[in-house]
Each structure stands twice: as C-alpha cells, then as structure tokens.
Amino acid sequence: MNTDASTIEAWLEGRVVAYGKVDIGSFTPETPLAELGLDSVYALTLCGDIEDRFDLEVDPTIVWDHPTIRSLAHGIAGRLAAAA
Amino acid sequence: MSTADHAVLDEAPTVRAARRVVREFERHLGDPRDAASVIPVDRSVGLDERREFPADAIAAVDELGLQRWYVPEAHGGELRDFLVPMLMIRSIARRDLTVAVAHGVTFLGAVGAWITGGPIARTMAELVLDGGPVSWGLTERGRGSDLSNTATTASIGGHVVLDGEKWPINNATRGRAMTVLARSSDQPGPRSLSLVLVDKRRVDAATLTTLPKVATHGTRGADISGLAMRRAVVDPEMLVGEPGHGLETVLKSLQLTRPLTTPLSVGAADHAIGVALEFAVTSPAVGGPPARRPSTRSTLGTAVADGLLAEAVMVAAAREMHHATHEMALVSSLAKFLVPNTVDLLVREIAPFLGERSQLLGVAGAGGFQKVARDNRVVGIFDGNSMVNLNMIVNEFGTIARPDDPVDASLVVASMRHDAAPDGWLDPGRLRLVTRRGSRLLRALPGLVDLLGPRESARPARRIASELDRVVDLAAGAPRAAMPSARSFELAERIALCFGASCAIAVELGGPDAAGAASEARLRAMLDRIAVRLGVLDAASASASASLLGDLALEATRDGRRLSVLEGWEAAP
Predict the structure, then answer these.
(1) pLDDT at B21 over 70
(2) Which chain B residues have a beta carbon less than 8 Å from that of A60?
C-alpha cells in the first residue's frame, strides 16, 4: 500500500466527501476539518476508518493536533513511518 | 485513634491486606445508629436540615487516612487497587452521602496530575497526603456541560495569570486548592484549554474570592460554591500537563472519576434498602410485621436485586480500570449511567412500601431515607450527567458494532475473581478517548451465558444476550449525529442494561462460592430484573426470583448481615 502523504491526502479527501457534508471541489487540503462538517462524532468515525485502512491505532486527538487534511495526512504518514 | 489502629490501615500491597483495610475502615466508622459513632445518622439528618457542613465526620475520615488511597503508590500513597478506596467511599456513603461527596472530590481534583505525571504529580501528592482538600474547577455559570465553552482564561508566560469564575464547584470554599480548566489560547478547537493547580496558599489571596454556597436539593450540607479569580498569578510549574492539553487530560480523568462515583450510589442503595428491611422485620403493623406479606418479599427482593446490580457494576468497573484500561472511555460511561439510574429506580420503587416514612422526619430510621433519596439524585448529575454519559455510549456505537475480536469469557471472569490482584496502578498511557472495539465485557456476554451452563439464571441471561445482539445491530445502523435522536439514547440505555448483565454474571462467577445457592439466587434475581427492564420478560415471571431474594435479605437482616456480590470478599483470609 502506498502510504506517502499525498496518497493519504487523496484518500482523506475521499472520506470527507463520503461523509456527505461537503461536495468535492468545495474545499482544499488546507481547509480546517471543522469547516468541513467534521464534528467530534465524525472525528471518531474517521479514526475508525484510518485504523481499518492503515492498520494504525489512532485516538481522536490526532485530529486535534492535525486540524486540516494536509496536516492530518502528514501526521498519519509520520506515524506509519514510525511504526514501520 | 491509637497507633495500633494506624498500623492496621498502614498495611500493604496484597489482596489480603486490601480486604483488611476495608474491613477495618468499616469497623472504625461503626454503627451509624450509635450516637457515639463517627457518622451517626441522626446527626447527619440534623446537619442536612440546617444545611451545615459535616465537619466532624470529615475530620474523622481524614484521621482514618482515606486520602492516602487517592494517591498512587508511585507518588507516595496507598493506591494500587481502585476497589479499595471505592469500598471505603461506599462505607461512608451508606452512612451519609454528603460526607462521601465532600471527601471523595479530592480524588477528582487530583487525578489529572496522576495522568499527566511529571513534577506536578509530586506537588499534588504532597498536597493530598497533607490532608488538603482539592476541588475540581471545570464548570462555569451558564455554560452547561460542554467544557469547550470554558471562558476562564489562563495567560501562560513567565507566570500563569488566571481570570474568571468556576461555579458551582464542590469544596470551592473549604478546599485548599482547585484544579482549574482555563482557556489558554484564542484559537478555536480542543487544544485551547489548559489545566492549572491553584493552591490558595501560593496565590495572592486578594486575587481570589469565594462565591456563596448554593442551596441544593440533595447533599444540602456540602460546600457547593465557587471561586472567582481576578488576575490570579500562579507559577508555571503548577500547570497540570502541557499547555493546550487540558481538555484531553480532563476527558481521560473522567474515565477514572466516573467509576469512583459509583460507590456513592451503591452506599445510598445500602442505606435505603437497610431502612426498608429494618422496617419490614420490626414494624408492629396490624397482622404482624410487613415481612410476612408476599408482596413485601417481592418488593424488597426487587430492590435488593437492583442494589446488587449497582454493586456488581461498581466492582466490574473497578476491575476494568486495571484490566481493560483502554476501554474505560466506554466502560466509565456505562457504569456512570447505569449505577445512579438503577439506584434512583430502587429508591422510587421502595418509597411506597415505606409509605409516609419515606418522607417524614422524626420517625425511627425514616429521616435517613428522605435524605438518601435526595442525595442520590445528585450523583446522577455531577461528573457528566446521565444524558452526557448516554451520549458517550451513542458515540461508541460504531466501535461497539465493529466485527468483534473473540473474547474468552473465562479470562474476563478470572480478572473479576475475589482473590484476583490488580496489575498495580494503571498505565495512564493506555487511556484512550475512544475505544477500538467497545467493551470486552459486552462482547463476552454470550460466552458468559455459556459459562452458566444448566443454571436457572442462564434463562434470563440468554434473553438478555439475544436482546444485545438485536440492539447492537440497530446501533450499527443508527445515524451519526452530534445531536443523537431519542431512539439512539434509548438504544444506549439498553446497551447499558446488557452491560449490567455481563457485570453481574462475571462478578458472581468470580466469587468464592460461584456455584452456591446464594450466588445463584442473587444472579437469577438480578438478571430477571434486567430482563424486565429491557421488556424481554414480564414482571410476573420475575416475582419468584425476587421473592426468594427478598426472603434471603430478610433472613440476613435478622442475622445482622447484608447481601452482597462481594460476599466472602472481606471475610476471606
């Protein structure tokens, strides 16, 4: 599985659109997740999705520390590299 | 208290010593009907009527050293097994819930420092071991349960400068220190709050003002007041954890404090049931004591079953803190919802049996009941009210419904065994804001039912297990929403009841006489009652097991005993 930050970023964009709160093209990787309708409940869902996709255990605090798609993608890539 | 008594309480790390500590603590508190005891019920009722703080009782509990069990061993205290302070708090609460609430809050105020560690843990430990009450300054006037609305500010530089008001806060006035949640950044989001320890002795008194005591419905004597800080300057070393990590620390603290509040309700249940049983065996009613009436046995038995369920959930939650630390996000909410809720129910249902005695003062044994009925309502409110806890369960629907890891029910039972030692103080690094797979206790329910084999109690247990299956399927399909529907709240409540069944079975199977008739009678009545509450068994079908339990409870009362899922725990060698 390709786990570089840009691939993860594209996957995250797909997830955010799948949650149905925003349309594709209406946001950038720098838009704060909170503005994408990603409230604390969806943050929990996202954590589950990250775990399923990357086999990586994350707590919702990852979204607190990485509040945009770009930052979050880097955060996930960093943890995957650390776990490898 | 003599030096010899201290030696008993000073004893050490084995399960056996833990039992002795709890037994000795209970013995020191004495019979509350005795005016010379530490917490006599008549004095408690009088103080409550006058809304006076129970200062003598608190001083006596300080003298017994309960605060030492709030501090982990690594920081110089006695805390190794959460069940020990929980059972001591229960012993106090069964006499006077106000005293338990006033003393126990120090654990709430301190626990954040045990989670973050670092030098602040040493400072906090010294403060608690010195007997200084610590309060927990989370809420603010007009801002509800959502801590992200916190308006008190902490400007962090060479010093920390605090501005704002914390209200209503237990022990805000009499407390020596308060752990304050404050906004340390203008940036929106959960990393904008910090925790700061305000030791009143180390802050300019002119910058602190206490706010008047609030008149409460229950625990009327407690110091429920507030603290205003006006440019109060605190050393940066008094930060509890990193700047910006306050909300995370609080959310993790709540996972430990919520189980710690369950013995308040369990003690309240002990008190309420004790009044009813005593009335049943002694009342000189026409035609003999009420204990002879069949409806009495069933009413009392149902209340006793509810009390035992509350106790079993308390014990299981205490064990899970050590054995399933990573699942406490969910377990703490399940327990904090179910225990006060169940005890409220038993108090409401037993009140008509007591008749006017449930409301009156000045009738033997009656003043205590009306006080405990009001006091327990408070437990359901603080540290996250019932709706907050149900919402936490709703948020976990996704993890509860995930394809499950197989769980070995016999391993779950093994960690509930009466002689099971905890692994020692828990690793706070294992606390998570959300679980990965819900609770192993919930997942173990079908396996636990199998372990019951041919026992009668397996029948209601199977009904509850299939109800859990159904409810988890529904939860998996429930819409995700920041404001869950009433339907989701109802599902969360049903999951909590099923969790209660798991706790009851696991704790009973972990007892020293798991196969005995007494254990089976307790378990059958608890499970029948849960099945009735879930609507999968009609009340008439549950009356036989309730009546049997009622008989056992009446017999125990005549012998000066009390039924307990921990039967044999304190007495065992």
Answers:
(1) yes
(2) 433-434
Domain map (residue ranges) of chain B: 3-107, 135-243, 250-558
Return the half-sphere exposure (C-beta side, CA atoms, 13 A cut-off) of residue A45: 19
Mapping DSSP onto H, E and C, the string for B250-294 reads HHHHHHHHHHHHHHHHHHHHHHHHHHHHHHHHHCCCCCCCHHHCH
CATH no. of B135-243: 2.40.110.10
Can you give the pLDDT at residue B362?
61
Q: CA angle, B75 as apex, B71 and B76 as ends, to 5°?
A: 80
Residues 6+ apart with CB under 8 A from B47: B53, B54, B98, B221
Whose structure tokens read 């084999």?
Answer: B453
Q: Please state the φ and ψ torsions of residue B478, each to the nearest 5 degrees.
A: -70, 140
Sorted by sequence, the CB contacts under 8 Å of residue A14 that are 6+ apart come out as none
* Cβ neighbourhood burial of A1 (10 Å; 0-12, 13-18, 19+): exposed
Strand partners, B232: B162
Asked if B395 lies within 8 A of A44 by C-beta distance, the reply is: yes
Residue B447 identity: G
Give phi and psi for B540, each to the nearest 5.
Answer: -60, -35
Residue to substitute from B395, B435, B488, interface A, most A β-carbons within 10 A: B395
Tell me the pLDDT of chain B averaged across its residues.
92
Q: How confident is the model at residue B472 (pLDDT cuts 50, 70, 90)?
A: very high
Cα separation, A41 vs B478, in Å, equals 13
> What pLDDT digit, counting tens, does each position of B305-350 carry?
999 999 999 999 999 999 999 999 999 999 999 999 999 999 999 9
Torsion sign, CA atoms A62, A66, A67, A68 = negative
Q: Residue B379: its pLDDT value, please?
A: 85
**CATH of segment(s) B250-558:** 1.20.140.10
pTM of the model: 0.94
Comparing C-alpha atoms, which of B236, B247, B252 is closest to residue B118? B236
Among all chains, which residue has been given the structure tokens 């709050």? B193
Q: Which CATH number fits domain B3-107: 3.10.620, 1.10.540, 2.20.25, 3.40.50?
A: 1.10.540
Q: Which domains are delineated in chain A?
A: 5-83 (1.10.1200.10)
Residue of A nearest to B394 (CA): A41
